[in-house]
Write a structure and sequence with these properties.
The chain is of the alpha/beta class and 203 residues long. It has helices at residues 17-37, 46-49, 56-65, 82-97, 123-126, 147-169, 180-185; strands spanning 5-10, 43-44, 67-74, 110-114, 131-132. The two termini are 32 Å apart.
């Protein structure tokens, strides 16, 4: 086997996060990435990548194992979702295995977009450089009529070069990444801070 996807897009699909991803981010991210890579851009997206009748947990894990990197759309509630958290944890575990995000090799394979300030993010997440899109986190047609919408396009165009660089630095694919044993060994902890666990029902 080999890589199938350049990017696995990890995000909360409920309103307004899913709407922002599909209405604001993706229309520009896809074509900008194709230009940054100068080739077809292969993106895994849960709305189109999971067929009717699939076991969605297994399908997500398979797609993640076959992806070069993860683009994660972060908000405080992102880290309250077991699945969102796990998607990031597995790619961060891969980074550690490869000696990435270190003094000798500071680059990584997880590229976050931040939609809120990081006060309530796990400590591990706070250490990772992100693209700050807080002022562009607006849904609805009104956003498209503002100067911020033009600025947002320019920001995504520049950022696509950083994502392309992460795709290029992805190492050769390893079969072990698709094994359940490897998934269970992932040790990165992105759980919310203990003082932030008073909410429930946010999976």
């Amino acid at each position: 086997m080999a890589y199938k996807y350049d990017v696995f897009l990890s995000y909360k699909s409920d309103f307004p996060f899913g709407d922002w991803v599909h209405e604001c981010l993706l229309p520009f991210f896809r074509p900008y990435m194709e230009n940054a890579l100068n080739r077809r851009f292969d993106l895994f997206l849960d709305r189109t990548g999971i067929a009717s009748g699939d076991s969605w947990p297994h399908r997500l894990l398979e797609a993640l194992s076959l992806s070069r990197c993860v683009v994660a759309v972060w908000s405080p509630f992102y880290f309250r979702s077991d699945w969102c958290r796990r998607e990031c944890e597995l790619m961060l575990h891969r980074e550690r295995q490869l000696g990435m995000r270190s003094l000798a090799n500071p680059g990584g394979l997880v590229l976050p977009i931040c939609l809120f300030d990081g006060d309530h993010f796990p400590e591990t997440a706070k250490e990772i450089q992100h693209l700050d899109c807080r002022k562009y986190f607006v849904v609805g047609d009104g956003f498209k009529k503002t100067e911020l919408y033009v600025e947002f396009q320019q920001v995504i165009a520049r950022w696509s070069e950083e994502v392309a660089a992460a795709i290029h630095r992805a190492p050769p694919w390893r079969r072990e990444w698709s094994s359940s044993k490897w998934h269970k060994e992932a040790s990165v902890d992105l759980r919310p801070r203990s003082g932030d666990l008073s909410f429930s029902g946010l999976e």
